[in-house]
Amino acid sequence: MSRRPRWRAGLTAAVLLAALAAAGPAPNPALADTDHLCRFTFTITTGGDGIRDDSEEMIFIGNAPVVFEDADGDGTSDDPGPIHKGGTGDRRHATHVWHASLERCQHNSVLTRGFTFMHTNRADDHETDNWDLVGLRIVDRDTPSRVYYDRSPEQGLIHRFSKNANQTWNTGWRDLSNVCRVTVTINTGPDGIGWAGSTGNYYPVDARETITLGGRHLFFEDYDGDGAADPPEDSDLPPGRPYHEGGRVYPAGHGTTYVWQAALSPCVPNAKLIGGFDLVHTSARDDWDLTGLRIVNRDTDAVYVDLPETGTVLHRFVRGSDAAFNTNLGRPLPDPAPGLDTDHDGLTDAEELHGLTAGGQTDPWLAERGADPCRETVAVEIDWLYDAQESHQPAAASLAAATYMFDRGDRPAYPCPYGYTSGPGVQLLIDLSDGIDAGSARKARLAQRSATTDRSPFDDYRAAHFRPIRDERFFYNLWGYAHNETNSSGVCCFGPNSNDFMVTLGAGNDALNEQGLPDASAHAAAATFVHELGHALTLRHGGDDDVPYKPNYQSVMNYRYSSTGIPDFGIARAMMLAETDADRLHAALEHAATLDYSRAALNNLDPHRLDERTGIGAASDYLTAWWDAAGTLRVGAGSAGLDWNFDDMGRQATDPDVEVDIIGQFQVCITGFDPTGGGLNTLQTRSLTTDFRKNQRIYAGSDGRCDTPPWPPTSCRSNRPAAPGRRTGRRGSTTSASSATPKG
């Protein structure tokens, strides 16, 4: 019996790690001058939650990691490295000064890409560290007058690094599509907040103010008004509290102005601004007058509410009877024209603002989750299987990583007719819907059709759990153990619209997988999810075809990156230099990788005439990989020249015309497999076309394609792409997070 090999994290990560280890040495550093960046001082101030000593922090300028002079924080400079770990002590409201340099100086133009901070903690989830960045100053050590970033702690929280989410932050990133951090300025009249009585006889009383947007509370960083930021109530929550109840000023016959810094977690889509902010006052004895209100985005300076003082009372908060105020001031919600689709995503504006309606049924889920009519939206419903032994519910970290990828997708912003502005990217909305008790009998053959009914278990689960009103508006995705008794990690595309897909990470996933590496991580699961979703969006393994492993197709759709994402070459190499443990190396590769679809068409490559000087022509340093003439996997930076034949051991890339079968005659297409588990993995399949057979395996031939089907035919092809022209989950749309269909 034969089977197609499993495209999983173990195999992909193992070969990439081996290739990175064999990569040529790093170039020598350049000397500092006024046009280049070389050495820095980072002054970091923590908030109510500090950095633990076992947390690992990395900083990059562009894609180049800095090297810390005192990487272990013991006060000496004899232990340089790209990972800072130690000397922080989990201290709150502490200031840390870290000196660092670049392995190779970078041109000033890299500043447009900002400094990226990456936080990692390898402890168990319940012990994993979170920390608050409230102050940051970055200075050039060679030219101290050059200050690259300067934000004082008095300006409030910059970023909260959390376990399994929000682990990366960039100094230049501005979220234009969501409301995350705001400054609230409140003006009161003579009757202020938190005091009762009359002139000359005022006394303080309890008062609590809450502000919500789209049903989510703002968390006030200094909720008690004592001038110091407050720690979070829970490690998964932002600093402060979801209410403000302190710092009241004694009334002196005139109004008072309060400035409150606050954050939303998670962020709220801009579409919720249509409904306005809700202010609610709670007190047993206090009433107060609101005379002015201004709410501003702290990251983008966008003004959401601007109601200046005019000498009149905007609203009088009366305890128990009129204690709420909405900034929308009674304006009705918009009523879009039938069929209007401002962002061309296949969902009408009315469906996104008010929910789905059809045949007398309604589904308000899209509107409740802030579906943005001015930003492309992809909606996915996920169900998952479980039985007495295990559950296949996707981890929150996996779905957060997928959402993050789409949020930063290369899609344009659209002019919005509803009074707010949305940014670029794609809004991925995931309805983690139903757990399904599948039992052990069906979990390994989800796609296998009955000979009598011509239906599969997947068909039955979909019919029972996916509401018809969502058909052609949502994609449907099922997470389970296996499909057709294979160990493929996913499959697409089928169902009535040929865009349903499955993620099946269960088969063979015991403590270690078949490569002896740890079981599928949350990152690998996210990579598999967006790979299969990409197929539902009509993306293919090779860009405009299905040729696998193209060096010039930097996408999670490429089998090379389908379970790891696309590693940054410099970051991955730097992290490898700091690690020796195999498990930690595997995790380091994932931390260096980005989940993304292809953003540009790169250089066409003719294996018979390759120019080493131009490489693949990528704008970034994402890792690219290819097979050399000896069948060894080689890697390099996509933005640099590439030593295709590796005759200079990766040090130089100067040959203008070399011949290398870069896609390779070394791709394993089929391996022998004994379904009884007896170990007699005899290959029964005969090779076809240019494919060839060697050591109980069949390899791709010179055309780079696996043309030979397995025999006997025990499984369908994994990750099968949708046929061109098939509709996606939105009617008639083929939108993806990619700006172009790149060519290989």
Rounded radius of gyration (Å) = 28 Å
Terminal Cα span:
33 Å
| Shape type | globular
Assembly state of the chains shown: single chain
Could you estimate the helical fraction of the residues in percent?
10-25%
Number of helices: 8
Structural class: alpha+beta
User: Percent of residues in beta strands?
Assistant: 25-35%
Number of strands: 36
How many separate domains?
A: 5
- Which residue ranges are poorly predicted, with pLDDT under 50 across at least 5 consecutive positions? 1-11, 27-31, 508-519, 714-744
**What is the residue-averaged pLDDT?**
81
Q: Major sheet: size, sense and barrel closure?
A: 9 strands, antiparallel
Question: Could you explain the architecture of this structure?
Answer:
With 744 residues, this protein is an alpha+beta fold. The chain folds into 5 domains: 31-170, Lipoxygenase-1 (Sandwich), CATH 2.60.60; 178-326, no CATH class; 336-525, no CATH class; 539-663, no CATH class; 665-712, no CATH class. 11% of the residues lie in helices and 26% in strands. It contains 8 helices and 36 strands. Helix 4 (396-407) packs across helix 6 (522-536). It is globular, with a radius of gyration of 28 Å. Residues 1-11, 27-31, 508-519 and 714-744 have low confidence and may be disordered.
Main attributes?
disordered N terminus; 5 domains; 9-stranded antiparallel beta sheet; 36 strands; alpha+beta; about 750 residues
Write the layout of secondary structure elements.
Blueprint: E1 2-3, H1 9-22, E2 36-46, E3 56-61, E4 64-68, E5 95-107, E6 115-120, E7 131-140, E8 147-151, E9 159-161, E10 168-170, E11 178-188, E12 195-196, E13 203-204, E14 208-213, E15 216-217, E16 219-220, E17 257-269, E18 277-282, E19 288-297, E20 303-307, E21 315-317, E22 324-326, H2 349-354, E23 356-358, E24 361-363, H3 365-368, E25 377-386, H4 396-407, E26 427-437, H5 457-465, E27 475-480, E28 490-494, E29 500-504, H6 522-536, E30 566-567, H7 569-577, H8 582-591, E31 593-594, E32 623-627, E33 633-637, E34 668-672, E35 692-694, E36 697-699
Parallel strand pairs: 25-26, 25-27, 27-29
Antiparallel strand pairs: 1-34, 2-5, 2-7, 3-4, 3-6, 4-5, 6-10, 7-8, 7-9, 11-17, 11-19, 12-13, 14-15, 14-18, 16-17, 18-22, 19-20, 19-21, 23-24, 28-29, 30-31, 32-33, 34-36, 35-36
